[in-house]
Amino acid sequence: MGSDDTSSSRSSSSSSSSSSPLLHDVMGSATAGIISRIVTHPLDTAKARIQAPVTSIGGRPNETFRGPLDALVRTYRHEGPRALYGGFGAVIVGGTPGTVLYLTGYAFFRDSLSSAASGWRGREATASSAGDTPTPSHPQEFAIHFMSGMLAEAVSCVVYVPVDVVKERMQVQRNLTDVTGHYRHQNHQYNGSLDALRQILRTEGMRGIYKGYGATLASFGPFSALYFMFYEQCKTWSKEYVHRKDSNTDAMSDDGMISVKDGDLPFIHLVACSAGAGALASWLTSPLDMAKLRLQVQRGKSAAAATQGKQTVQYSSMLDCLRSAYVDGGLRGLFRGAGARVIHFAPATTITMTCYEKCRAFYADSLG
């Protein structure tokens, strides 16, 4: 998310990709992804358990949670810390390359679209003899960041979807307890991330791993698109604020534009930009995430039931999931787990992007 150091007051999208070598982006994004997931995975588990449909397990209904904190406390109390990190192996092994592909992909698409837009404006300016500087307009910049986020998600989902399927199925399986609250037995279909991957491939094939590609892209595509659009705009405002506050003329480039680099923005500004963009984008797209999760969890239950000759009620599509959630609970049903999603994504995006910007700048200074 935000890659190259910039020399434009509008956004990093107008900078050349050569200003930030690929190695710096790769190392910065990998480091950021690992740190973020270590800190925030329990919050993601809480979100998954809140959003999962309430069904019967072993003749008993799944427990419901009053909120993210309740999900964290009760999961830890009844199942221990290991349950909070269900699917973590898949996230680290597969999610780290996915994060690298996601962030470097965004930088590539952003710079490519920016160059194309600048070239088009340059030709337009030449034709009109206006002599304008060929930089993308504000509407073009919004569109560039939106489309770059969507394209980056489409590419990275090749890695993310299998990881997401394994992670969420591991997260929603539970240890069951008896009526006194004491441990009774495990209701674990999978014994680990690798076992989950093997079972899914054996019972559902590659289609089971990638069947959720469309649902995942429909959920995280809009999130990424909105996130990058909000994040880049917030960085632009931050750079303008830093420039106005800083009387140092070095903050100006030769063409009179602000040249504050992303990695040089004050830490609190990076935190505010990433947290605000992450919170808003995650809340707006929460119904899509809820529908995506239910489809993915449903496939696991359907595959298990099929081996026993049973039939399960299935959602036919994301639209069917959204309709069912609305019928059952209205708007509140659609946004079930939205608070947990925000609580997870706000710190996740904050840690990821702050570490990314700072680590990328560190590697650039260290490696040259």
TrEMBL record:
<dbReference type="InterPro" id="IPR018108">
    <property type="entry name" value="MCP_transmembrane"/>
</dbReference>
<dbReference type="InterPro" id="IPR023395">
    <property type="entry name" value="MCP_dom_sf"/>
</dbReference>
<feature type="repeat" description="Solcar">
    <location>
        <begin position="140"/>
        <end position="237"/>
    </location>
</feature>
<dbReference type="GO" id="GO:0016020">
    <property type="term" value="C:membrane"/>
</dbReference>
<feature type="repeat" description="Solcar">
    <location>
        <begin position="265"/>
        <end position="362"/>
    </location>
</feature>
<feature type="transmembrane region" description="Helical">
    <location>
        <begin position="84"/>
        <end position="109"/>
    </location>
</feature>
<dbReference type="Pfam" id="PF00153">
    <property type="entry name" value="Mito_carr"/>
</dbReference>
<keyword id="KW-0677">Repeat</keyword>
<feature type="region of interest" description="Disordered">
    <location>
        <begin position="1"/>
        <end position="23"/>
    </location>
</feature>
<keyword id="KW-0472">Membrane</keyword>
<feature type="repeat" description="Solcar">
    <location>
        <begin position="20"/>
        <end position="112"/>
    </location>
</feature>
<feature type="transmembrane region" description="Helical">
    <location>
        <begin position="142"/>
        <end position="163"/>
    </location>
</feature>
<keyword id="KW-0813">Transport</keyword>
<keyword id="KW-0812">Transmembrane</keyword>
<dbReference type="InterPro" id="IPR002067">
    <property type="entry name" value="MCP"/>
</dbReference>
<feature type="transmembrane region" description="Helical">
    <location>
        <begin position="267"/>
        <end position="285"/>
    </location>
</feature>
<comment type="similarity">
    <text>Belongs to the mitochondrial carrier (TC 2.A.29) family.</text>
</comment>
<feature type="compositionally biased region" description="Low complexity">
    <location>
        <begin position="8"/>
        <end position="20"/>
    </location>
</feature>
<keyword id="KW-1133">Transmembrane helix</keyword>
<feature type="transmembrane region" description="Helical">
    <location>
        <begin position="208"/>
        <end position="230"/>
    </location>
</feature>
<protein>
    <recommendedName>
        <fullName>Mitochondrial carrier protein</fullName>
    </recommendedName>
</protein>
